[in-house]
Amino acid sequence: MTTFSHHHHPSFQELCLKTLKESGARLTRARMALIESLESAREPLAPKEILQKTQDRLKGQETVDSVTIYRILDRFCELGLVHQVAPSGGYLACTHLACTEQPHIMTYCTQCRQADEIHVPDEVMAPLLWFLRSQNKFEAKKHLFQLDGTCASCRQDLRVKAFATSEEAPTEPLS
Ligand SMILES: [Zn+2]
Ligand SMILES: [Zn+2]
Ligand SMILES: [Zn+2]
Questions:
Q1: What is the SS3 assignment for 147?
Q2: What pLDDT, in 10s, does the model give residues 51-68?
Q3: Alpha helices of the chain — where are they, by DSSP H?
Q4: Ligand closest to the CA atom of residue 102
Q5: Domain 99-169's class?
Q6: For residue 107, how far is its CA from the centre of ligand 1 (angstroms)?
Q7: In whole angstroms, what is the distance from residue 2 CA to residue 141 CA?
Q8: Fold annotation for 11-95
Q9: Which residues pair with 104 in a beta bridge?
């Protein structure tokens, strides 16, 4: 009997293991350490950072080089386990592994570099797909695209700053 209720949301780690198993990929210690490194990151990580974190987690039990890291990341991208985020091309763990065929938007905050994968309802997506099909004769397949902008917390900060500036602003001399 399983202890998981049907409300249990499988973790990134669990879904990775499942996907890797299904694709017949071997589960090496390096792959495991890389998965753990990506799991907690909220902003896209550069391969160099991933290499460092993976090495830290392996605690010298095994050595990995950047070639190995790139190879694993390529494979993980193909399997949809991680996504590359522009403009840095950094890697971010997929947070929607359970909903494979659904469209998603990667929102990227240009202020704090935080990226979030957001599930797009079909009724929101349909007009866009229709537009592309009818106006551009383009059939969209890959359902993950990126929008750059400012996240909620950075927008809040900007509002606070704008308010502070307006408070400090020297008053116009009366003529
Ligand atoms: Zn994803
Ligand atoms: Zn932000
Ligand atoms: Zn989703």
A1: strand
A2: 999 999 999 888 899 999
A3: 12-22, 29-39, 47-58, 66-78, 122-136, 152-168
A4: 3
A5: alpha beta
A6: 12
A7: 37
A8: Arc Repressor Mutant, subunit A (1.10.10)
A9: 119, 144
